[in-house]
Amino acid sequence: MSAADPTGAQLLVVIDPAARRVDGESTRIARDVLCAGAVAKICLPNGPEEVARAVARRGRRRTVVIGDDRALLRVVGLLHRRRELAVAPLAWVPVGALPAVSVARVLGVPLSAVAAARAVLDGAERRLGLLADDSDGVVLGGLWVPAGATHRNTPGPPAAGARRGRAPAAAEAGPAGSGGNGGGGAGHQSWWSPAARTARTALTMLSGPGGRHPLPSCTRLRVEADGVLLADLDRPVGRVAVSAVEGLAEVVVQQRSGDEPVRARARAVTVSGPDFRYRADNRIRGPVRTRTWTAHPEAWRLTLPRA
Fold it and tell me: Disordered: where is this region (predicted)?
């Protein structure tokens, strides 16, 4: 624990075990920066149960997660289920290789351990939206249905809760030498890259621009936005993408490549049909026969760089 800092910041630093294994050096650097700038209680949990106990005993401390997307989602999901998310300030130092820290890119969290740790100390708190499903799960970075193959060039969904309410990101093929997607070949940007954060880009990627990202095999899905039918089982659907934008759930339905997408904003989006899987926050979930996602504006508090 460091000496008391002049700002009086008190932190609970939860260091995910995977971060210690994958990149011990970045983890140590982040811990040292945080301890030098604030009163920091360090937690080294060995599993989800220990994370839950530490977070439950956080008191007035701000919880800082050091780890990948799953580590952050574990804490956010825990606080959501405890109905404490809105009153629990959070910060995050991403540790891991892309795509394991892809959510950081859409939220605007620096990928450098030093920069992210400094943002924890010097940044500003912002309230962000998210999607919550009917099984008490949360989605921070957007989702698509069906999940499709786990191929390195498969585009991702629009991203929920992008900074400043901007529309979500989608995968985009870039020029040679552009940012990678954590395993993709050269010339392919991550779908959460800054160049792919507009609604126009999201729609372009849904339709597979230039044939570079063709839609997966069509499936039959029923899609409703606040009870309004956008697609039914009588017509195959290529992809459904859902994200949180400006306090609502934005849904984009692509019937087939080349068709004009159908898009709408609603408080809740329901997808149903034969057993399907979906990709949320770069993780495949399901199979389910029906799932409803509800938009929660300003649902959680995250410290981000002031710039």
Answer: 148-191
Domain boundaries 10-122, corresponding CATH code = 3.40.50.10330
What does the domain layout of the chain look like in residue ranges? 10-122, 138-300
Helices of type H across 123-237: 199-206
What confidence tens digit (pLDDT) does each residue in 93-135 have? 999 998 899 999 989 999 999 999 999 999 999 999 999 999 9
**SS3 of residue 11 by DSSP:** strand
Residues 6+ apart with CB under 8 A from 32: none
CATH architecture label of 138-300: Sandwich (2.60)
Considering just the CA atoms, what is the radius of gyration of the chain in Å? 19
Angle at CA 250, nearest 5°, toward 256 and 170?
60
One fold for both 10-122 and 138-300?
Answer: no
Query: pTM above the 0.85 mark?
Result: no
Residue 202: name the closest of 246, 242, 157, 139 by CA: 157
- Non-local (6+) Cβ contacts of 59 within 8 A are none
Residue ranges of the chain with pLDDT lower than 70? 1-8, 148-218, 257
What pLDDT, on the 0 to 100 scale, is given for residue 217? 60
Dump strand ranges (E) for the chain.
10-15, 39-43, 62-67, 90-94, 124-133, 138-139, 143-145, 172-173, 188-189, 222-225, 228-231, 239-245, 248-254, 262-266, 268-280, 283-304
Average pLDDT, the chain: 80
